[in-house]
Design brief:
52% of the residues lie in helices and 15% in strands. It is an alpha+beta fold. Helix 9 packs antiparallel against helix 11. The mean pLDDT is 91.
Length: 353
């Protein structure tokens, strides 16, 4: 496989990185946590809508960018790198799922930022958390739901394995904030009673797509952790020289760089598989990307904190925000161990033995 982004795609990623850089996340996240307010950057969300980043998966018109699946992976990467406190990936997933289903429902609202979507899909092989759907009405309890306090809809599944976009804007959903480590995406428990539900087809393919996009988010966070650690190792002096000059530090950073590049290769395989019509290849790629990126982000966040030393454990340091996010994403969509189980029985891998 020879996968690489085009210069035009990389230019779009740089454009998004500049936009996200205007809304520096760490100080806002600390302020919201101190105030006990649900994490959501309304100004960033409005800017994303105005610059047409929210509806691009549904085709070009006055509200959308003409971007495809590969560009979505770059969006996920930059969102993870910036710790963007907005439900960007779930909203893009919902738009893509509606587009695939040939549905025009909600598309304009998604494009202009009027419909914020949360994601709550069960892990592979699991039937919960799930909703019960009768006709076009969904009921049930979903927990935990990242961004559940600020979402207008939730992308979820029923126990039969079908995916649904459930509208939460009617007075049919009760929300309860949950105490979680993650400061970038506040979690909630949702009690849903006869909420309008829109069918999206089988959940397996949607979960695989979500896993690959989440892997890119984790990869972006891991790269940010490495960049912060390298920068600190250059400026922090001990015994008259930068701490990066010591073998214990430089070897740790080099090993982390190698691990991130291995995870990047698996994520790129996932990006390539997203455009492949073969569901078996997509399932394998999702498992590889998800398992690799989950471990890598957690390792990168831990090593970043360690290299910062005593500074890394302080509230003012960005390192703990990534460690919290890495731990939260470790549990989302199922653990790395759950995804590795899928690799053991993969027909593609078994055929290669």
């Amino acid at each position: 496989m020879n996968f690489a982004y085009t210069p035009a795609q990389l230019a779009l990623a740089e454009e998004l990185a500049v936009l996200l850089g205007r809304f520096e996340a760490p100080p806002k996240l600390r302020a919201l946590a101190d105030a006990g307010i649900a994490a959501f950057d309304a100004e960033l969300w409005q800017a994303l809508a105005e610059q047409q980043w929210l509806g691009h998966s549904m085709g070009p018109d006055q509200h959308h960018r003409d971007l495809g699946t590969e560009e979505q992976t770059l969006v996920a990467y930059e969102a993870g790198r910036a710790l963007a406190s907005v439900p960007l990936l779930a909203t893009l997933l919902a738009g893509q799922a509606l587009n695939t289903a040939g549905s025009a429902a909600y598309q304009d609202e998604l494009a202009v930022g009027a419909l914020r979507v949360a994601l709550c899909l069960p892990p592979p092989g699991a039937a919960t958390p799930a909703v019960a759907v009768s006709g076009d009405k969904a009921s049930g309890r979903l927990s935990p739901v990242a961004d559940g306090l600020v979402a207008d809809a939730v992308l979820c599944a029923d126990a039969k394995g079908d995916a649904w976009l459930v509208d939460l804007r009617r007075p049919t959903a009760r929300r309860r904030q949950l105490a979680t480590l993650d400061l970038a995406h506040t979690a909630a428990e949702l009690d849903i009673d006869s909420a309008l539900a829109h069918p999206l087809g089988p959940a397996d393919g949607l979960r695989a797509r979500a896993a690959i996009l989440t892997a890119f988010e984790q990869l972006g966070g891991a790269q940010r952790c490495l960049d912060m650690a390298v920068a600190y190792a250059k400026e922090r002096y001990a015994f008259g020289q930068p701490i990066g000059a010591f073998q214990a530090v430089k070897h740790k950073l080099a090993a982390l760089h190698v691990e991130i590049e291995l995870a990047r290769a698996n994520a790129y395989y996932g990006a390539s598989a997203l455009t492949d019509a073969d569901p078996t290849t997509l399932s394998l790629a999702a498992a590889l990307a998800r398992a690799s990126a989950t471990d890598t982000y957690l390792t990168a966040a831990q090593e970043c904190l360690h290299i910062h030393g005593g500074v890394g454990f302080t509230w003012a340091c960005e390192a703990h925000l990534h460690l919290r996010r890495a731990r939260a994403l470790e549990a989302a969509l199922g653990s790395a161990a759950v995804w590795r189980e899928g690799l053991v029985d993969s027909p593609v891998l078994l055929a290669s033995l």
